[in-house]
Amino acid sequence: ASALAGATTIEEVSDIVATKVAALLATTVCTLTVVDPESTHLQIRSMNIPGGVEMEGYVSVNANEFLPRAVVAREGAPMIFVNRGAAVSAFPGLAADLERAGIDGSAFWPLRNTRGKVTGVLGLGWCHPVDLDEPLSVAIQTSVDLCSQALERAQLYDAEHSLIEALQKRLLVAPPHVDGLDVYSLYLPATQLVAMGGDWYEGALLADGQLAVVVGDVVGHGVEAAADMSQIRNVVSALLRSGTDPAQIFPLVSELLHDDRMVTATAMIAWINHDQHEIHYISAGHPPAMVKHPDGRVEVLRDGRQPLLGVSSEPVQPGRCEFHPGSALVMYTDGLVERRTEDIFTSIGALAKRLAAITETSATGIATSLLNQSMERRDQDDDIAVVVVCHSVELSSDRQLTSTPRPRPVE
Prior knowledge:
By secondary structure, the protein is of the alpha+beta class. 35% of the residues lie in helices and 24% in strands. It has helices spanning 2-5, 10-25, 56-59, 68-75, 84-90, 95-101, 134-171, 222-241, 246-258, 344-357, 363-376, and strands at residues 29-35, 41-48, 60-62, 79-81, 106-112, 118-125, 181-188, 199-205, 211-218, 265-273, 278-284, 290-292, 298-300, 305-306, 319-322, 328-332, 384-391. Helix 7 (134-171) runs parallel beside helix 8. The longest helix has 38 residues, at 134-171.
């Protein structure tokens, strides 16, 4: 009960069924079949079976097939076979497979959500005839009830996770192309063990031709954070394209958010004048961006700081950094650096050292290297958004720079 109460995803529920539920009921075979409302197939998501037993033909079956789990999913009533003979009498096609698996008694119970709809089937098999005495019946019914509740929560969580991820992929459009700049952006969602939804980036061409890049992170997780992220990103995007001075954008955003419910976020904006070889930037409580200079030196951009978005503030003096050909700007959210057991400033320092050691010179190569090195140090428990802008040393006349590819996880 404790394990299932803490299960968040379908994968976690499946693991618990294959281990703890199977052990509790002393089964030879224990399976969890999930009914997908969007599909005509039933998928076995977990199996506790003897070694050497072939189950490939049962992992995905048509919901209309004449098999016990399919019948239970359609009709919603449990099926119990006290021994192999009873099962073979009802389903003759299973005789050989039951014998090979060494299954004698078996049972299949529907799992229902709070609306009474069948969402899955718990399949049980024993190597002996099954006697559904009171202790076993109570144990099975308790397992069914707990699995039903856990599966419903997991399906709701997975649906929310998919919705947020789809929303973010739709909103996170690559920064525009600018001659002389190599830009790469990516967004990597957290593992499904953690809710997500707040990381974002945006890019726009200013009236004078400079490229402005913004990276931000809304406080919170889940659908609300995704909705807040969408609102803030759209406001920032509109202000960037309206000709507003970049140094004025964050105070205006905070003023608009202050009139709404309490929404806070961190963000950093950098506008790049590569003709003048310089970057100006402002950070609203966000982890500092970094510039790797042509000589390999990494500069952490610590100036131009103001309070979080959502907190009233006056415009601040932007920070400034040289950005000569061969330089690389790295902007990111805290998922790239944050460690639960490490001070954030230590983590930022470690990222600067990794950036200095990278031999890659393209925006894609730098972003990929940083992400891979970060993932080696820990499990990903937060979203990650990264934008890398490289000031190209030279552009060949036949090189066609286009918008950054759609953000994708790095293998």
